[in-house]
Amino acid sequence: MAIDRIAVVGSGAWGTALANAAARAGRAVTLVARSESTAAALGETRANPRLPGVRLDERIAVTARIGEAGGADAVLLAVPAQALRSAATRLAAALTRPTPVIACAKGIERGTQKFMTEVIAESAPAAVPAILSGPSFAADVARGLPTAVTLATADRTRAEALARALGSATFRPYHATDVRGVEIGGAAKNVLAIAAGIVAGRALGASAAAALTTRGFAELMRFGIAYGARAETLTGLSGLGDLILTCATPQSRNFSFGVAIGKGERPDLAAGGTLAEGAFTAAVLIDMAIQKSVDMPVAAAVAAVLDGTLTVDAAIEALLTRPLRGE
């Protein structure tokens, strides 16, 4: 299965980083920007304002015409989760043969409760859905710092081929077939990272942060198992690995968003008014947990804070006064 030509749809920080990673792996890469002006600026300067100090690999072609992605052997959709359906729909017309289309967003679509690969399958009939997720920051990947992720699709042979196509000495995709597990890990950890940020913003201490991350992971496991994920996936890179990364550093947009809320900023104004993926996912995650009778008190507290049902202090008190129980 030859995968030599890669198209990356989305020229934000993550799309630019993945384009650089694919170019380092020796692939012919086309980066599809949202507008002609963005494509022209990227093509001329080879610099993305969202990645200061990072240069776009000279071998990467930049365009605003999504139709050019149709000739690729695989397409990476590097757009936010709530914009993925729109991007996949635009891409659909360009796909004339079965083509792996890899979701690179971590979330669940609001309104439909669809995971990213389900959105791709509905929006682009010729697409072969896949998911890429794991502990990775765009700046690290763009600069070529060592990073390991998980790449999953239903067919093992295809998953292996995609991992080989994108893999290099510094970007290490581990292949898997547990698509749902990889998707759940990425979506749920974003919500839990907001909780970890709130703990940091309230200066509740390292012990509280460790306890919250651990109990949050237990919630992620319960939810994942209820929705058909494999336990080994959830304890791997795309679950526990990503949770550890995003619950511990301001580089995480979700963590930083939570810190701002913990310091007293309104959710709609926190972090400059730019909502993190977890802010969109929290409510739908809890709705889905209720449907399967999954107990997720930490994630539920985040959702309640975001929709104004609880104040931060009330949410913390509710968690601290829960009945003592066996672990």
Task: Describe what you observe in this structure.
The chain is of the alpha/beta class. It contains 14 helices and 10 strands. The strands form 2 sheets. Strands 3-2-1-4-5-8-9-10 form an 8-stranded mixed sheet, with helices on both faces. Strands 6-7 form a two-stranded antiparallel ribbon. Helix 7 crosses helix 12. The radius of gyration is 19 Å and the shape is globular.
Characterize the overall form: globular
First-to-last CA distance:
47 Å
The stretches of 5 or more residues where confidence is low (pLDDT under 50) are: none
Q: Strand percentage, roughly? A: 5-15%
Number of alpha- plus pi-helical segments: 14
According to DSSP, the number of beta strands is 10
Order of helices and strands: EHEHEEHEEEHEHEHEHHHHHHHH
- The assigned structural class equals alpha/beta
The strand line-up of the biggest sheet is 3-2-1-4-5-8-9-10
Radius of gyration (CA) equals 19 Å
Quick one: biggest sheet? 8 strands, mixed
The overall pLDDT average reads 96
How much helical structure, as a percent, in the residues?
40-55%
Task: Give the arrangement of secondary structure elements.
Elements: E1 5-9, H1 13-24, E2 28-32, H2 36-45, E3 61-63, E4 74-77, H3 84-92, E5 99-103, E6 108-109, E7 114-115, H4 116-123, E8 127-133, H5 138-143, E9 147-152, H6 156-166, E10 171-176, H7 179-201, H8 206-226, H9 231-234, H10 237-246, H11 253-262, H12 277-291, H13 297-306, H14 312-320
Parallel strand pairs: 1-2, 1-4, 2-3, 4-5, 5-8, 9-10
Antiparallel strand pairs: 6-7, 8-9
Helix pairs in contact: 3-4, 7-8, 7-10, 7-11, 7-12, 7-13, 12-13, 13-14
